[in-house]
Design brief:
The complex is a heterodimer of chains A (291) and B (185).
Chain A: H1 3-9, H2 15-23, H3 31-57, E1 119-123, E2 125-128, E3 131-138, E4 144-146, E5 149-151, E6 158-165, E7 168-175, E8 178-184, E9 189-196, E10 205-206, E11 209-212, H4 217-225, E12 228-231, E13 234-237, E14 244-253, E15 266-275, H5 280-290
Chain B: H1 3-11, H2 16-37, H3 40-57, H4 66-90, H5 94-103, H6 109-130, H7 134-144, H8 150-157, H9 161-181
Classes of the chains: A alpha+beta (291), B mainly alpha (185).
């Protein structure tokens, strides 16, 4: 066959196909919309810069006091108890957790009360719009436990994020995130306190990337509604492993000079700890107090 | 006037069918011919021949898409005209022209084989096209049936020229692989 014959063969193309080609028009390109989105994102970024600048400037100032939930009339035996100091506290055995929860990576600081094996780090990978990030929580520097309730007093918190998107890989550590302590009750997990880090709370630029706070909605959905969390493709019933768990969630946008389209994709990482610290007796004590 | 109404005129042997066809699809068909022939006179002649051929073939032909039907006819006629002229330019001596004229009335066994091959090629091409996504198929037809330039296709389909180039290159590669599998090349 030569080109002439092939060209001739086009004369015998099915007429329906010809009619289709006659009316073919490319669907409107998404590019204009992406441009608008980019402009909107840029404006939002500019607006966000103002408080960020103030925040960075204020970082040297003393941290605002952490707002804990109101403490009841019972005197606090110790504002800096470790879990193991609480009578009846049950330290969870890491062997009872699935392997995926291993990798305990707690780094105690000089003034810390280690939570030891009662907390177990977990991390999830979120895949969204061609971008993947994987994060782990590290560097919780203090813990505050008050009379049957558990609070974290977090002075520093970081989430290491490994990003994979298109042809570029970047590694970047982002500090701050929205941290939420969840408490399990008989039926569901509740969001006890959106516990936003105060000291060390920052959003900063690095490698042309920026991070932004993001509500913990996804976590609430996964845990409170479904009572489960999916880690590495396996879904676990949280109630089997924890009374509390701490969740950090972050969403970021990628600004990459090598791939302008990466601007369009936000993706997030979540990481947290499972905490198993109270026996049923302790729960009952808490319930009585609450009543 | 709708295609159906024009076809009714053809079927009734009403010569207004020619007038209405020319009114509705004259420019469309003329453009196809002109792209091949690059000559106003020749394109106009092919358009007339096309309408005449349609008149002679409808009925019994009953095309679903009158535009596509006329486009197919005028493309063939234009390509024939183009080759005839090229041939005459190359071989302008009286003998060759005489032979060419005589060949036109003879059916040689080789011609039969050639006709069968052409039919088979057309069948394969249609099969290939039908399995393509709409975009690739349409761009290929616009380029190699209508012989539009890449710039014209891009403007018409509201695409970037580079995109059209890329899609066409990709589709031609697929076509080559397909024809290889079918032992046509």
């Amino acid at each position: 066959m030569n080109a002439t014959k092939l060209l001739d063969a086009f004369s015998k193309v099915d007429q329906d196909l010809l009619a289709e080609a006659d009316t073919f028009r490319q669907a409107p390109r998404a590019l204009p919309r992406l441009r608008y989105a980019l402009i909107a994102a840029s404006l939002a970024l500019l607006i966000a810069l103002i408080p960020i600048t103030v925040m960075i400037a204020n970082r040297t100032a003393p941290p605002p006091p952490v707002t804990n939930p109101p403490v009841t009339d019972a005197p606090l035996p110790n504002t800096h108890l470790s879990i193991t100091d609480i009578p009846g506290a049950e330290a969870i055995d890491s062997d009872t957790l699935p392997n995926h929860f291993s990798g305990f990576n707690y780094h105690p600081g000089p003034n810390l009360h280690p939570i030891d094996k009662s907390a177990h780090q977990w991390a999830t990978t979120v895949r969204e719009n061609y971008a993947t990030s994987e994060g782990t929580v590290e560097n919780i520097q203090s813990i505050l436990i008050q009379d049957g309730e558990l609070y974290y007093h977090i002075t520093q918190f970081s989430l290491n994020v490994q990003t994979h998107y298109f042809n570029t890989n970047g590694k970047d550590t982002v500090s701050l995130i929205n941290v939420t302590l969840y408490k399990k009750n008989s039926n569901y997990f509740t969001v006890q306190n959106p516990y936003v880090i105060t000291e060390g709370h920052s959003i900063y630029y690095d490698m042309g990337l920026y991070a932004e706070e993001y509500p913990t909605g996804l976590c609430v959905y996964e845990s409170a509604k479904n009572h489960t969390v999916t880690i590495q493709g396996i879904t676990y019933d949280l109630s089997e492993y924890a009374d509390y768990y701490l969740v950090a969630y972050m969403q970021r946008r990628v600004m990459s000079s090598t791939n302008p389209y990466a601007n369009e994709f936000g993706f997030g990482s979540r990481a947290g700890f499972f905490i198993k610290c109270f026996t049923d007796t302790d729960h009952e004590r808490c319930n009585q107090r609450d009543r | 006037m709708t295609d159906q109404a024009i076809l009714v005129l053809f079927n009734e042997r009403n010569e207004d069918a020619i007038v209405e066809s020319r009114k509705k699809y004259g420019d469309y068909c003329y453009a196809i011919a002109y792209r091949i022939l690059q000559s106003r006179e020749d394109a106009e002649e092919c358009l007339n021949d096309t309408l005449l051929r349609a008149w002679n073939h409808i009925p019994p032909d009953c095309p679903n898409k009158l535009s596509a039907y006329l486009a197919t006819i005028i493309r063939r006629l234009s390509l024939d005209c183009y080759r005839r002229e090229q041939s005459q330019k190359r071989k302008a001596d009286a003998v060759t022209v005489a032979l060419h004229e005589l060949e036109a009335i003879l059916v040689h066994p080789d011609d039969l084989i050639q006709q069968i091959e052409e039919r088979e090629t057309a069948r394969l091409l249609n099969q290939f096209l039908k399995n393509l996504p709409t975009k690739e198929r349409s761009l290929l037809i616009l380029r190699y049936f209508h012989l539009l330039t890449v710039a014209e296709i891009a403007k018409r389909c509201q695409m970037k020229e580079n995109t059209v180039y890329a899609v066409l290159a990709r589709t031609l590669k697929k076509l080559r692989i397909f024809l290889e599998k079918e032992n046509r090349i």
